[in-house]
Amino acid sequence: MRSDGRAGSVLSLFLPELIRLAASVLLGASLAVSLGFLYAVQREIDLAAYSDAEYQVRSEIAVSPADETDAIRDFGGQVFLDAMWRSRFVGPSNAEIGVTVVMASDHSVESSSYFPSSARVVGPDPAVGSNWVDLSADLARSLGAHVGDRVTMPVPDSVNGVEYRVRSVYAARLFGVQNVAIAASAPAFAAIPGSEEEQFLEILVGGKSPAEVAQILSEPSYKKLLERGKTYPPVITSRDESLRVAEAGSATSLALVGALAIVAIAGGVALVAREVDVFRRHADPTLMLLVRLGVNPGALILRLALTTGGVLAVSIASGCVIGVQLFRLGVLAPCFPPTLLPTLALTALVVSVVAEVFLAFAMRRSARKLVER
Amino acid sequence: MTGPVVLLRHVRIADLVRDLVMLVLVGTLGAFAMLFSARSTFDKVIFEAALDYEWRSSAPAVSDTTGALTLEQVSSVSVARLSDTPTGGSRISDFEHSVDVPALCYDPASATQVNQLFAGVLADGVLDARGVTLDEATAYRFGLRVGDEVGLAVSTNAGLVERRYPISALVLPYLPPTASQSSGLVILPQTLFEPMRSGAGTGTAVTYTSTPVPGALSHDDAIYSAAFGAPDLTAFVGVVLALGIGIWVIGNVRAVGELAQNLAGCARTLFAIGLPRWKIRATVLLIALGLGILAAISAVAASAGLVTYWASYYIQWRETVTVAVLLAATSALVVIPFSRRASRQLEESR
Predict the structure, then answer these.
(1) B252 with B284, same domain?
(2) C-beta of residue A256 within 8 angstroms of C-beta of residue B18
(3) Closest CA in chain B for residue A269
(4) B116 with B37, same domain?
(5) How does pLDDT run across B102-123, given as a tens digit for each residue?
(6) pLDDT value for A180
(7) Do both B91 and B33 map to the same domain?
(8) ipTM of the assembly?
(9) Pairwise CB contact (< 8 Å): B25 & A263
(10) Quick one: pLDDT at residue A291?
(11) Nearest-CA neighbor of A362 among A265, A290, A274?
């Protein structure tokens, strides 16, 4: 027990080396995360509306707001009805930004929209009422808007415009378009002159195949309206098809993302392995001296290994957190998508385990040296 | 020479190899991100800077502007690699894998001026009125070289009008000076574009002159716009460069620090027995610089290979060399202060 206690107290002799190890691993991990996830983040944001969304089919349609409940019932309930507008938003920073606005019908099922709940970065704000708007992370950053803030959609010949409040922010884009919003259609329809003639021209349907959607749209009530708008037969696209188009249009390919991730993991592991080796070399003479002075070698090595292992794990985890924060500053990307957090956590775990294995080998080598001498 | 040789013999090869491997991997990560992120800005700036003109105007030539060269810019022409057909014609299916690039059409009568304008950006071949000129990135994408044939197509009301032409030259990778996703370029004489013109209408006139005309953009302003015209992109590239260099600096600091520490004992002994300080410093400096430069070259070569052959994106060799020089210079900036510190320690030990 006495020697165990001494083994514990003498660990302070290794403090400078431990600090050096922690600083190098922390800096290395944060830079490796920010560089390794550089394009994975962009790709995730580009594809979230197609890879993680819950709708299965997208189609053209023509439905007036008065008939929306009937349409939702006809398509099985898991439906998002909308009209896509090109407009402008003014945010808290008074920046006026061109926006693609998806005007959602009141009775749409929000989980079937383009913004999947898994890609929600912040929100929803329960205090936001019927004048809600959900923003893409790119748009929120451009507008300087946060959850709960007011954003205005200017209306020609009107002083006030349509006022919305930000309910949530999502890590998603539509076919590479960065500034996207999904908004309640009722405030816009009420404020814009002539918008009572507006129709919902797009439908996102969950739980049905393209053929089933085509079948419903061939019914006379829908066919007539579509023919009037010269959109019959409608363009019906499965989500998988949209995903393929979005992948082709994304500035980053899977090969690029994969290559950068592998290089980042290899670089991070090499740096950690090297630091562990240097730590062992620097620690060996002190260990030798302490054993000669009567400290129990087994207890000393065990305590040093546990302490160093803890330092490594905390440094790698902290490095990952700093790496994520670099994304949240907004220069590398508008946000860090929540859908990538499990991947990051798994990567950090794997690198930590590899680092601990390196450390175990290093400590075993030190112990052998102590025994031999 | 004995002293430096003794110092060299005291270098632990295993440690040096370990640090070299670490530096190469860390450098590959930094260089990969830097090469890919900076490539569009690099391509824009290099192309714009290499064009030979003083003023550029998006209007037809003014009659009193002597020596003005006006090109017709067509916004979109489809480029595809054609499969071999028994008749030598092309297949519409070839254009399923085409890319749409902007085109510049010139009057064959002004071939001399055109050659002068593009002389700096010419990468291979000669601008010739019998063939078309492609940018390197588009040619790389389809595995095309000078002398090969390429399919060009324009979408008209009557469908796709396509032609097969030989490639007479390649120019540097091209991106429009303003921020745009569409990259690539085809330069061709109007005589070759004419058969595809049906329905395509007329393009925009771009005039290059040596004297300013109202509304013209100077060459210097065009280069500045290519470099800093998109503030978001400029900030992104700047931060990626900083992160890439940051991880490289960490690797270098750790490797050089360890090297200096390993050689300190031997260096002190050699200094005590009369070896001049500058020889010790120069030897340590050369070993550390050698390590840094070797790692920089290996890392940039590995990352350029990954970007080009694995991820299939085209990277100019000029950019690869620029990043390698940047990393090597950073290594030198890290090594020199370390060698100075080691030198001071020798003085103090006396």
Answers:
(1) yes
(2) no
(3) B22
(4) no
(5) 889 998 888 888 998 999 999 9
(6) 93
(7) no
(8) 0.80
(9) yes
(10) 83
(11) A274
B33/A260 CB distance under 8 A? yes
Burial class from Cβ neighbours inside 10 Å (0-12, 13-18, 19+) for residue A101 reads: buried
B306–A263 CB contact, under 8 Å = yes
Question: Mean pLDDT over residues B62-88, rounded?
Answer: 71
- Same domain? For B34 and B67 the reply is no
Q: Same structural domain for residues B93 and B126?
A: yes
In chain B, whose CA is at the least distance from the CA of A275?
Answer: B254
* Residue A3 confidence (pLDDT) above 60: no
Same domain for B236 and B206: no
The stretch B59-78 carries a mean pLDDT of: 74
Give the other-Cβ count within 10 Å of A214's Cβ: 15
Q: Are the C-beta atoms of A152 and A25 separated by less than 8 Å?
A: no
Q: Which of B177, B211, B245 is the last residue of a domain?
A: B211
Q: Considering the domain boundaries, does residue B49 fall inside one?
A: no
CA distances from B27 to B23, B243, B247, B323 (A): 6, 11, 8, 11
Mean per-residue pLDDT, B162-179: 82
Q: Is the pLDDT of residue A229 over 80?
A: no
* In contact, B125 and B168? CB cutoff 8 Å: yes
- Is B135 a member of any domain? yes
Final residue in a domain of this structure, among B145, B178, B211: B211
Domain that holds residue B254: 2-44+232-349
Task: List the single best residue of A271, A326, A332 to mutate versus B (max B Cβ within 10 A).
Answer: A271
Same domain, B70 and B6: no
Domain tally, chain B: 2
3-class DSSP string for B234-259: HHHHHHHHHHHHHHHHHHHHHHHHHH
Sort out which chain B residues have CB atoms less than 8 A from A36's CB and list them.
29
Shortest CA gap B125–chain A (Å): 30
Pairing of strands A150-153, A132-136: unpaired
pLDDT of residue B1: 56
- List chain A residues with CB under 8 Å of B251: 271
pTM: 0.82
> Which of A266, A326, A331 is facing B236, going by the closest CB pair?
A331
The identity of residue B56, as a single letter, is R
What is the residue-averaged pLDDT of chain B?
83
Q: What mean pLDDT, rounded, does chain A reach?
A: 85
Does any domain span residue B220?
no
Sign (positive or negative) of CA dihedral A107, A109, A113, A118:
positive
Q: Is the pLDDT of residue B318 over 60?
A: yes
**What residues of A are in contact with residue B314 (Cβ under 8 Å)?**
none
Q: What secondary structure, in 3-state letters, does B174-213 show? A: CCCCCCCCCCCCEEEEHHHHHHHCCCCCCCEEEEEECCCC
Q: Are B239 and B169 found together in one domain?
A: no
User: For residue range A214-224, what is the model confidence (pLDDT) as tens digits?
Assistant: 888 788 877 77
Q: Is the pLDDT of residue A13 over 80?
A: yes
Question: Is residue B221 situated within a structural domain?
Answer: no
Whether residue B241 has pLDDT greater than 70: yes
Q: How many CA atoms lie within 13 A of B164 on its CB side?
A: 15
- Please report how many Cα atoms fall inside a 13 Å half-sphere around the Cα of residue B58, on the Cβ side: 5
Place of tokens 């013209």: B216
